[in-house]
Amino acid sequence: MPDEYDKIREDFNPPERGRIFESGTNEVLGDREQGHVRHPDPRPTSLGPRHYDKERADDHGKIHALEEKSGQTGSANDLRELKKDRELLAAREIETLTIRTVVGEKMSPKYVRELSKLRDEFKNRVIHIELTRDQARVAFGKGISLEKPSPQLELPGVADVAREQVAVDLQKRKGKIATLAQARETAERFRAVQKFSQGAERGRKDAERAREVRETRENEQARDRELAKTAETREQIKVKNVELAQAMEDQARDINSAWDSGEAVPVEKVRDAHATLSRDLAEIREAELVQARDDFVASGHTSEEVRTIESRLEQVREEARREIVKGIDTLGVIVERGDNAHTERETAEQQRERERAAEREAARAQDAARQAAYERLDRQGQLTEAERLHWLGQGTDPRAAVRSPPAPAPSVERGGTGQGQGINRSLNPTREGR
What we know:
Elements: H1 4-9, H2 14-28, E1 37-38, E2 54-57, E3 63-68, H3 76-90, E4 96-102, H4 109-122, E5 126-131, H5 133-147, H6 158-260, E6 265-266, H7 267-298, H8 303-320, H9 322-380, H10 385-393, E7 411-412
Parallel strand pairs: 3-4, 4-5
Antiparallel strand pairs: 1-2, 2-3, 6-7
């Protein structure tokens, strides 16, 4: 049912209602005393200009906008104005926004939601004031009176006073407009400085991002180069492992073939092979260790992480070539057995040589004694002719003491020291001799 507020507005169209309401609140609610200026210059936005009903500038030059809603709210234009308000608030074109509505006047749910979002985003910078219907009626009535000034008696001097008051009011309005213009200019200068500062900050951040991108790209390229280098090293190590396994297989085949044929294997040949293969194995182990560390460092692992798994990786590598290492160790055993056998033969030969020398010395002493006895008997004339001829026939041939031939070069027969052990083609250290 229409109330007094509805009745007082019913004779006016929407534009008139808005103008009258603004005039009334300007007086009744003290907007003019607070420094508000009606219908200020529109503020540009990306959605078009925003026209506020009133604005005022504070002592710091900040703009406070005021929007009056005397009737229904929620049209497409009202929603578009909220979007413009958000843009101006975000850019600090306006410091605060106050929206006045009247209790009981319809407000669309969508407008309520959008206004609530705006208040949530900008907090106390967005103010919603609801006037009671009595307050709205009083303000509207005041606006009507301002629209239709009542006639007054033409008393002497009253017209002059009225004109002077109008001039004073006009001057005050011009002053407020000038203040708004100055505030707008100050705000524009501030925005220019702010925009320059923001541009400089963006430039600094862009340069920083560009540097970070460049460093990241350089680090990635360096890591790719390291990975390519380690991949090449890894392939070289793989080839060396294959060559080592093949060399060990060749040695095992040659040794087993010689033993199968009943031939002895020269110790020096085995010694050279053992030294070469041992050196190659040591070089491969060192290269694998360095390559593994480089791989993990290039992949971003710390030195502590590398040390944690290094021993485990070494166990895995050694397990993979266990048979090769066993074969190389077997070559060392063969060399050791050959050296021991050679030493034993030399010792035995030296013993035999000492025994032969003692025998020769005993024989020479015996011959000398017999010779002396014959000579003595011969001088004494006690020898018969037959004994004398026999004595002459027993003369010692100086070539009788023949030296022993030199010992042959050391070699290893099946089993090395006669223990019946050998080396097989599967790189086992020993096998039973046949």
